Amino acid sequence: MSLEAIYQTIPHRPPFLFIDEIVEVTENGATAKRTIREDEPQFEGHYPGNPIMPGVLLCESIFQTAAIFLANHKVDADTDSTTLTPVLVRIQDARFKRMVKPGDEITIEVTYLSQVHQFHQLRGRVLKDGKPAMMLECTLALIDEGKAAKEA
């Protein structure tokens, strides 16, 4: 999936888009890639002279990959996906194993676990050189902004 297709699927845009491409979307999950660039704004302060990708932004790459998966596999055919906003409602068991630095290419993997109403639970991990850099479980809700506006 190209960058343009990502733009058509989720509302995130630079500088708050943390996936470069979607490699694969299956019935059970999705895989994305990202190359960490030295010129990204977070490195001005995290940390000058020793830039490290903030863990919260690695988490965000998982959430965005999860949102791509949900838009492709968990949206009803009669729902306009452009009115859906993926909203994070829970993070569980986040673990950080390796530092990610400018120049690193990461792979983001998301696996679908379950659904209760509009809440979707997923497991995600970020790999660096094929080894886990971080992992977590999260719950996302797909909020239909078009429906919420009509109800208001």
Question: Can you give a write-up of this model?
Answer:
Helices cover 22% and strands 40% of the residues. It is of the alpha+beta class. It has one domain (3-151): Hotdog Thioesterase (Thiol Ester Dehydrase, Chain A, Roll). Strands 1-2-4-5-6-3 form a six-stranded antiparallel sheet. A hairpin with a 2-residue loop joins strand 4 (105-116) and strand 5 (119-128). The longest helix is centred in the middle third of the chain and has 19 residues, at 55-73. The relative contact order is 0.20. The model has no long low-confidence stretch (mean pLDDT 91).
Helix vs. strand class: alpha+beta
The order of strands across the largest sheet is 1-2-4-5-6-3
CATH topology type: Thiol Ester Dehydrase, Chain A
What's the total helix number? Answer: 3
Low-confidence stretches: none
Total beta strand runs: 6
- Please tell me the overall pLDDT: 91
Distance between the termini: 35 Å
Rough outline: globular
Q: Order of SSEs, N→C?
A: HEEHEEEEH
- Proportion of residues in extended strands: 35-45%
CATH architecture descriptor name: Roll
The count of domains is 1
Helix content: 10-25%
CATH hierarchy, class: Alpha Beta
Major sheet: size, sense and barrel closure?
6 strands, antiparallel
Task: Round the Cα radius of gyration to an integer and report it.
Answer: 16 Å
CATH evolutionary superfamily: Hotdog Thioesterase
Secondary structure layout:
Layout: H1 3-9, E1 21-25, E2 29-35, H2 55-73, E3 84-96, E4 105-116, E5 119-128, E6 131-144, H3 145-151
Antiparallel strand pairs: 1-2, 2-4, 3-6, 4-5, 5-6
